[in-house]
């Protein structure tokens, strides 16, 4: 592993220099087909794990399946300008909590969802907000300070900019727990120890049947880059001084997941992104897990630029 470790301040300083646009948060790939491919594949992947979230009959949802009787809730961390919230999560769940530390990113996310609530400006985005069927709560703060187990802002470390869309009755205003926790292209800003502790907090905040939440158990979704391992079987971590992030190899990611008490239930290769990826190896294991090893990126790619998704759940389930 490289000697350097990510710095919260350096990471925020880097992203502060990037525009609050799709190109800005996607390393210049916001104007091609990457955002659409990413969003569609993410929604398909989430439905493959939680078919209960499907609102229409499909091959993964029985024709006579009962609708969920409660509102569903997701947490989008390191959310940038709200790209995943607006194009993925709001298509699947009732309410989203969007968390982002960079000031002009989170302000742009709040502006976008506020504008969408007043008129149908964003075709296919911010679904359900204008009619107050769904909601987005926008929060500014770092992953290091975020504790999904406690009410938003209760520890004074996170700043709640506001909730837009559906407003629950007073007796249900103190919502807790999440059905989906989505982490994409942001966990490289955490050290291994910080990441393990963050994932433990996330695990404890998941809604599940054993806690009285009927119909389905919650999941954590991680969609991140990987680097190749120099020695087979040896985890590797590479430090990027540009944005102060760590890029982990497949084994390095799995080592942290294990230390956080999580087990992998599915992995899937992201297809259809721009050329420049190294060859991909595929592995299928035999404990009800389908695993596809992740493509390796050339070193000149920004560590915010892309590639695998892993769904995790509570190891005690």
UniProtKB/TrEMBL annotation:
Keyword RNA-binding: no
Record has Methyltransferase as a keyword: yes
An example Gene Ontology molecular-function term: N-terminal protein N-methyltransferase activity
InterPro entries (UniProt xref): MeTrfase_NTM1, SAM-dependent_MTases_sf
One Pfam family this sequence matches: Methyltransf_PK
Record-level GO BP terms: methylation
Domain of life the protein comes from: Eukaryota
GO cellular component terms given for this protein: cytoplasm
Top enzyme category: transferase
This enzyme's EC code(s): 2.1.1.244
Keyword tags: Methyltransferase, S-adenosyl-L-methionine, Transferase
CDD domains membership: AdoMet_MTases
Catalysed reactions, as listed in the record: N-terminal L-seryl-L-prolyl-L-lysyl-[protein] + 3 S-adenosyl-L-methionine = N-terminal N,N,N-trimethyl-L-seryl-L-prolyl-L-lysyl-[protein] + 3 S-adenosyl-L-homocysteine + 3 H(+); N-terminal L-alanyl-L-prolyl-L-lysyl-[protein] + 3 S-adenosyl-L-methionine = N-terminal N,N,N-trimethyl-L-alanyl-L-prolyl-L-lysyl-[protein] + 3 S-adenosyl-L-homocysteine + 3 H(+); N-terminal L-prolyl-L-prolyl-L-lysyl-[protein] + 2 S-adenosyl-L-methionine = N-terminal N,N-dimethyl-L-prolyl-L-prolyl-L-lysyl-[protein] + 2 S-adenosyl-L-homocysteine + 2 H(+)
Record-stated family: Belongs to the methyltransferase superfamily. NTM1 family.
Family annotation (PANTHER family): AD-003 - RELATED, ALPHA N-TERMINAL PROTEIN METHYLTRANSFERASE 1
This protein's name: Alpha N-terminal protein methyltransferase 1
Origin species: Sanghuangporus baumii
Lineage: Eukaryota, Fungi, Dikarya, Basidiomycota, Agaricomycotina
